[in-house]
Amino acid sequence: MAWTGPADAPVSARIAALGPSLQPSERRVVDAIAADLATAVECTAQELADKVGVGRASVIRTSQTLGYEGYPQLRVALARDVALNESQEQDESTAVGTLRSAVDRFGRNLPRLTAALTDEDVAAFVRGLDVADRVVVVAAGLSTPLGLDMAMRLSAAGRPAEYLPDAFAQQIAARGLTPGSVCLVLSGSGANEASLDAAAAAREAGATVLALTSFARSPLVAHADIALVIPQVTYSFPDELMHTSRAGMALVVESVVDLLVSRRGDRGRQARAVAMGVVGKRLRE
C-alpha cells in the first residue's frame, strides 16, 4: 500500500508514517535517506541502491510506495525538505547546549505531526467524539498516560469519557459498547496487543473505533473507522518509543479537544469554565 495522505506531505513524514511496515529492501532505502537527507539528494537511484546494497528497482519501488511517480520526484522532494530544514548548528559541548540542540531538533520536526492528516478525517474524528452516546478510551503501555490525559481533557470539555487503567477492564468496557458509542484508541506503535483486542471487541459490538497512532499501516488502522496518523517526530523508531512519541501525540490530543470545544460552542465553553472554576477553588496562594 502506497502513501495516501496529503500530496504536500514532506518525505520525512511519509517515511515516519510508513517506515515500520515497509518491505526489508524498502526499509534499507528509507533508513539511508532518513539518516542523511543531504547525501541522499546528491545520489542517483543507482548510487543510492549501491550505497544500501539493494537493486535499483527497490529504490524506484520505495519512491512509489512513498507516493512519488519515481525516484527523480522523490529526489526533488528531498531537496525541498533539506532546504526547509536547514538551521543554525547548536553547540553541544555543554549540557545546556546538548539540551537546547535536542529541543530545537524536536521543534523543527513538529510540522510533521499533521503532515498525514486531512480535513475530512479530522472533522469526522471530532464529530464522532461529539455525537457519541458513550466514549471509552483505550491505551496501554507507553501510551497509558495519553489515555488518562485524553479522558480528563474530554471530560473537562463536557464530553464525559471513561478510562480504565487495566487493559483487561478496557476490553470488557469496549465489548459493552453499542452502536452510537465510540472506542477511542491511542497507541503510538498501533500494534499493542491489548489495545488491538479492545478495538476488535468494540467493532464486534457495533461501536465506532477512532484511533490515534503514529504509523499509517499499523494493525490498529485496519481496526479503525477513522484513524489520525501522527508521524514520529524523530527518525529512529526505538528513540521515538523511548522519548518523543508521547510528546507529539500529547500535543495533538490537546488540539483535538480544542477542536471539540469549538464544535460544541457554548456547551464546550461553559464546560471548560466549570472545570476551571473547580481548579481555581483548589488553588492556594
Summarize the helix and strand pattern as letters. Answer: HHHHHHHHEHEHEHEHEHH
- The share of residues in extended strands comes to 5-15%
* Largest β sheet strand count, sense and barrel closure: 5 strands, parallel
Report the end-to-end length measured between terminal Cα atoms: 57 Å
Unreliable residue stretches: none
What's the number of extended β-strand segments?
A: 5
Helix content class: 55-70%
Your description of this structure?
The chain has 285 residues and is of the alpha/beta class. It is 60% helix and 8% strand. The protein is built from 14 helices and five strands. It has helices spanning 11-18, 24-35, 37-41, 45-52, 56-65, 71-85, 95-109, 119-131, 144-156, 167-175, 193-204, 219-223, 237-264, 266-282, and strands spanning 135-139, 162-163, 182-187, 208-213, 226-229. A five-stranded parallel beta sheet has the order 2-1-3-4-5, with helices on both faces. Strand 4 (208-213), helix 12 and strand 5 (226-229) form a beta-alpha-beta unit.
